[in-house]
Amino acid sequence: MANKPGGWSDTMDTTEETQWICDQAKDQVEAFTGKNYVVYTAIKYRSQVVAGDNFLIKVDAGEDYDHLSVHRVLSCDGHRIVLRGVEQHRTKDYPLVPFTN
Predict the structure, then answer these.
(1) Which in 34, 64, 71, 82 has the greatest CB count within 10 A?
(2) How many domains does the chain have?
(3) Family assignment (predicted)?
(4) Distance CA 63, CA 1 (A)
(5) Residue 50 within any structural domain of the chain
């Protein structure tokens, strides 16, 4: 849970919802990175409640790990998934920290 309103949660194991968000963002991630992912499995995440929800998601990408920054817009706007950024070539133990790119 977040320590304060609008703060980021602790890092948690992925859920079905987190994998679904990852799957929805996959085309955007592939366009951003120029890669076609065979292995693409969410393993950890953090969340932040804002006007919608922000997610930092650690993804097993096969040879290494990617970190995704994803925004899910409010339900009244259709719960669209918007990729905010990708950090590539991370390790399994590299911490999930907010980033922009």
Answers:
(1) 71
(2) 1
(3) Belongs to the cystatin family.
(4) 30
(5) yes
| Three-state DSSP state, 86 | strand
Q: What is the CA radius of gyration of the chain?
A: 13
Check if the beta carbon of residue 15 is closer than 8 Å to that of residue 58. Answer: no
Give the pLDDT confidence of 8-50 residue by residue, as tens digits.
Answer: 999 999 999 999 999 999 999 999 999 999 999 999 999 999 8
pTM assigned to the model = 0.89
- Strand, helix or coil for residue 76: helix
- Give me the domain span that covers residue 80: 12-86
Which DSSP symbol is given to 15? -
Is residue 52 in some structural domain? yes
Q: Would you give the end-to-end CA distance of the chain in angstroms?
A: 25
